Amino acid sequence: MDLIRWEPRKHAVRSLFDDFFDMMEVPGRGRRGLLEGSPWEPAVDLIDKKDKLIVKVELPGVDKNDVKISLAENNLTIQGEIKKDEEIKKEDYYYRERAYGNYARTISLPIEIDKEKINAKFKNGILEVIMPKKPEIQPKEITIEAE
């Protein structure tokens, strides 16, 4: 039986790269990207303002027509399909990368919102969903009078 020499630095560097690409949840990159067949979840920010909740979702390379937004009870769901087909040809190199697949992200909302006044915008790969809070849920500020 042959012995294999252990090279800790070689394995440590490889592990660093593996960890880095595992953290990158970008479609088509790393071991957890869509090219490997595992699910991709877009990054989400939930902002609680005085009179509204704002959800910002990163959807790079996604067309707005491929996005569906739904609200059931206090759960906002953003889902759709990503179809990325990028091709670059230059004089001395050729590059082509594809990523396809479905994605979904459900956000539990901390309070009730006014479902009739929800507004959504999509610009530069960022989906912004603005949801006004129900009037009875909004905090009431009380003014203190000086005596």
Overall average residue pLDDT: 78
Widest beta sheet: strand line-up = 1-2-7-6
Q: Would you state the CATH class of the largest domain?
A: Mainly Beta
CATH architecture heading of the largest domain:
Sandwich
Order of helices and strands: HEEEEEEE
Helix content, binned percent: 10-25%
Structural class: mainly beta
Residue share in β-strands:
35-45%
- How many helices in DSSP terms? 1
- What low-confidence regions span 5 or more consecutive residues with pLDDT below 50? 25-38
Say how many strands there are.
7
Q: What is the distance, rounded to the nearest whole angstrom, between the alpha carbons of the first and last residues?
A: 92 Å
Largest sheet: 4 strands, antiparallel
CATH topology of the largest domain: Immunoglobulin-like
Note the overall shape.
elongated
Radius of gyration: 23 Å
Q: Quaternary arrangement of the chains shown? A: single chain
What is the count of distinct domains?
Answer: 2
